[in-house]
Design goal:
The structure is a single chain. The chain has about 110 residues and is an all-beta fold. The protein is built from no helices and 11 strands.
Length: about 110
């Protein structure tokens, strides 16, 4: 069974940092590119970042470029998202996803 479990979300003040993790199981993690996607309250899904299988090619949405860093540890079947300089508009449920499989998400709330 394919599973992806996100963690690391929480409440943070504007300008703060969080590191999200996504532990994958049930498939060969190193064979799949991975993405982070978020959904803000009352809004649609928004792509945040992607990373290739080896972890040496990444891309970011314009909203997070320069502030977020995606990475992966294939030995640990884990995807990461380092989020710095967080803004209130970053409040959302953050999901890791690949090939149609999704985790349940981890909530990030950016508020003073």
């Amino acid at each position: 069974e394919v599973q992806m479990v996100e963690s690391g979300g929480g409440l943070v003040q504007p300008g703060g940092s969080l590191r999200l993790s996504c532990v994958a199981s049930g498939f060969i993690f190193s064979n799949y590119g991975m993405k982070w996607v978020r959904q803000a309250p009352g809004k649609g899904f928004e792509w945040v970042s992607l990373i290739n299988t080896a972890g040496d090619i990444t891309d970011y949405s314009d909203y997070v470029k320069g502030r977020f860093t995606i990475s992966r540890d294939n030995a640990k079947n884990t995807l990461y998202l380092q989020m710095n300089s967080l803004k209130p508009e970053g409040t959302a449920l953050y999901y890791c996803t690949t090939e149609g499989a999704w985790g349940r998400g981890t909530q990030v709330t950016v508020s003073a």
